[in-house]
Write a structure and sequence with these properties.
Layout (H helix, E strand, L loop, with lengths): L3 H17 L4 E17 L2 E19 L2 E7 L4 H17 L32 H16 L4 E20 L4 E17 L6 E9 L8 H14 L9 E7 L1 H15 L1 H5 L20 E3 L22 E5 L2 E2 L6 H7 L7 E2 L7 E2 L4 E3 L6 H6 L3 E9 L9 E12 L2 E14 H7 L1 E2 L9 E2 L3 E9 L2
Parallel strand pairs: 7-14, 13-18
Antiparallel strand pairs: 1-2, 1-4, 2-3, 4-5, 5-6, 7-19, 8-9, 8-13, 9-10, 11-12, 14-15, 15-16, 16-19, 17-19
Helix pairs in contact: 3-4
Amino acid sequence: MLTTEQACERVSDIVGRARRAGADAADAVMIADRQLGVSVRMGALEDVERSESEELGLRVFVGTRSASVSTSDLASDSMDALVERVIAMAREAPEDPWAGLAPESRLLHGSPPLLDLDDGRESRPEDLRDRALEAEDAARAVAGVTNSEGGSASASASVTALATSHGFAGAYSLTSHMISASVLAGEGGRMERDSAWHSARHATALEAPSTIGRRAGERAVARLNPARIASGAMPVVFDRRVSGGLLGHLVGAITGASIARKTSFLLHALGEQVFAKGVTICDDPHRPRGLRSRPFDGEGLPVLPRSIIDNGMLETWLLDSAAARQLGMDPTGHASRGIAGAPGASPSNLYMQAGLIPAETLIGEIDRGILVTELIGQGVNGLTGDYSRGAAGFLIEKGEITRPVSEITIAGNLRDMFRALVPANDLEHRYGINAPTVRIDGMTIAGD
């Protein structure tokens, strides 16, 4: 696989070719990666997969017109043909007064922050096999587990490089390691399925495979014999497994594209109270070994930790340069991009700060409610904020978690849900987006 220096040379080279061929401006991104994965089922090896790839994307500007192309053919002659093709495409593209590179004065200069995202480790297939077997064995050993969908372990490494024609060139590498297990409990038509997984930048930070497997088995068994419940309004507690999804809906409503197109239920909410006082949501691209940490954004701008929601107030949109120009604002360092197309905007390590109340207290105060551990479907209207999702979890009765429940729908409006949200004190940085257990009173439950 390419080194960061080699990847940086590649993107700088093709940007230079584009400028010499007549482009007014250009930027290029390259991603090289290596992946290895092993899966097992019922104690036997099922599959081993390995892949390596190198892809490059080039975007050029001719006046206010732009076009982009991507390729995995990195031969020198192919690069020249690619440049000619994309410039011809740009000359025929419609004009876009907002498109362009990030402001030159805002580019990252100097050394990027050291985030410890690459452990330099190349895992062996036999090591991954052993992790997968250990996880599945632990899951199958849980009393009540009757079948398995398998265990898996994977390891990957990648290099991302970005160069622009107005002075930025940078690259960084990262690794990722993952273990998972998925099993079934029960018999016949009463079987229930659940899973567990853990991912980390460094292999040494992974949970023990047996811990992950045992958690998967216990979750599946706990879901056996779900009850049906009557419809009504009641408090809903979102487990940490799913509470981060609420932040995902917030992100969709505050990205620059949604605001510029006027398709957000939070369109006029900047500077307003969106959550209850005491709720703070932060974005931290500099978190060491973070699953979404990065030293610069998708346009070469520096990235900094910042509060998105501060004490309930919405403090900022998430803006790439094009959306910022359209809104008459400055880009916020949240540009993100893949190989093809123009940048969009997204957060890095987004999290809701822990509250002051233990999760047990949030649950203990409920006479009758639902603890949600799984959400199903995508029933969220980004324009109105209307929220309706299939769900499964557990019934809360007299402050105690009692019977499992499934085949229910929880509904509300995100504006109301955000203002009613109460976070517990059990935040754990486990995913790319993290939130503690949260409680929202007065949601509508559709059951029997």
